From TrEMBL:
It catalyses: tRNA(Trp) + L-tryptophan + ATP = L-tryptophyl-tRNA(Trp) + AMP + diphosphate + H(+). Its main location: cytoplasm. It comes from Proteiniclasticum aestuarii. This is Tryptophan--tRNA ligase. Homodimer. InterPro entries: aa-tRNA-synth_I_CS, aa-tRNA-synth_Ic, Rossmann-like_a/b/a_fold, Trp-tRNA-ligase, Trp-tRNA-ligase_bac-type, Trp-tRNA_synthetase.
Length: 337
């Protein structure tokens, strides 16, 4: 008998345009899983609305992300590509899990603390932002995912999903697979170009802090040119030079080389030459992705076909687990005709 494939689930939320951090820390890592595992890759629009979004822009970004997924090498004939809100099981499971999560564990989530700290004074914080890790637990658990490939910033949330799963399994009976985060080696955390002590994020207000996957070459050159470095002036891979270290990590993640090799090839050379090289490496990587993504975005009907098919496949898998959850907590099933 053929062995059942392990299941992979991951997602990006359309809270901004996809950055190089999302591409290297998440998408690029997802591609390699497609042959070995059964993969579900989602566009997490319900997560995006935990902070207020411009509706028209949000809809546009969802399609853009799908186009970038496909252009980067996610194959919709192998993997299930879908939009989170098209699969109602996510929201339904999320409520059941909310009732099995506790305030204390949610209060300890560092992402919540970071995100609320960034909000301006007097901005009201949505309960959705607080609860978002539970929705993420639902995203993972309703597919019985074994692996969740994410950047290191999301590791804590995957661990929470695991804790909630374990608790549910022991309270009711075995229901969920316990998920495990898979963190990429070189691109676990791509840092902000303007402040290399924090993570590059698509929702940042400062456009110079990130590279977007769809940034044109001249914009990439300009942003890398402006990236904050230091006064040492020598290309080293050390925590004392976090800006330079980050740029080296970007090269390593794209070229699949070791930091020492990059340092050696820039011996005796300055930051100008180094940054020019970094920009060209990024441009070379992103150009084919941009070309394909822009092509896909000219024919919305193909994208519609892909996400419709994806939602059907995802719903089929998720609903099976959701039914189990509903039954175990004691919800009376409706008569289905
Ligand atoms: P936001 O600022 O709205 O939270 P984000 O850039 O953090 O946006 P998410 O949608 O929260 O993006 O995360 C999507 C995926 O990208 C996750 O797997 C996350 O770990 C990964 N990721 C996000 N930023 C980085 C980064 N700077 N380096 C590596 N991986 C990242
Ligand atoms: Mg994030």
């Amino acid at each position: 008998m053929e062995e059942k494939k392990k299941i992979v689930l991951s997602a990006i939320k359309p809270s901004g345009e996809i950055t190089l951090g999302n591409y290297l820390g998440a998408i690029k890592n997802w591609i390699g899983f497609q042959d070995e595992y059964e993969c579900f890759y989602c566009i997490a629009d319900l997560h995006a609305i935990t902070v207020r979004q411009e509706p028209r822009l949000l809809r546009k970004r969802v399609l853009e992300i799908l186009a970038i997924y496909i252009a980067s090498g996610l194959d919709y004939t192998k993997s299930t590509l879908f939009v989170q809100s098209h699969v109602p099981a996510h929201s339904e499971a999320s409520w059941i899990l909310t009732c099995n999560a506790n305030m204390g564990e949610l209060s300890r989530m560092t992402q919540y603390k970071d995100k609320t700290a960034k909000l301006k004074e007097n901005t009201s914080i949505s309960a959705g932002l607080f609860n978002y890790p539970v929705l993420m637990a639902a995203d993972i658990l309703i597919y019985n995912a074994d692996f969740v490939p994410v950047g290191i910033d999301q590791k804590q949330h995957v661990e929470l999903a695991r804790d909630i799963a374990q608790r549910f399994n022991s309270s009711y009976s075995d229901t969920f697979t316990l998920p495990e985060a898979k963190i990429p080696e070189n691109a676990a955390k791509i840092m902000d170009l303007q402040d290399p002590s924090k993570k590059m994020s698509k929702s940042d207000d400062n456009q110079n802090s990130y590279i977007l996957v769809l940034d044109p070459p001249d914009v990439i050159r300009r942003k890398i040119g402006r990236a904050v470095t230091d006064s040492v002036g020598v290309v080293n891979y050390t925590d004392e030079q976090p800006g330079v270290k980050n740029l080296i990590n970007i090269i390593c993640a794209i070229k699949n080389v070791k930091p020492d090799e990059v340092v050696a090839s820039f011996e005796g050379k300055g930051y100008k030459e180094f940054k020019e090289y970094v920009a060209e490496v990024i441009i070379e990587e992103l150009e084919p992705v941009q070309k394909k993504a822009n092509e896909l975005l000219t024919d919305k009907s193909k994208l519609e076909e892909i996400y419709t098919e994806g939602a059907m496949k995802a719903s089929y898998a998720a609903t099976k687990v959701l039914r189990k959850m509903q039954k175990k907590v004691g919800l009376l099933p409706p008569v289905r005709k």
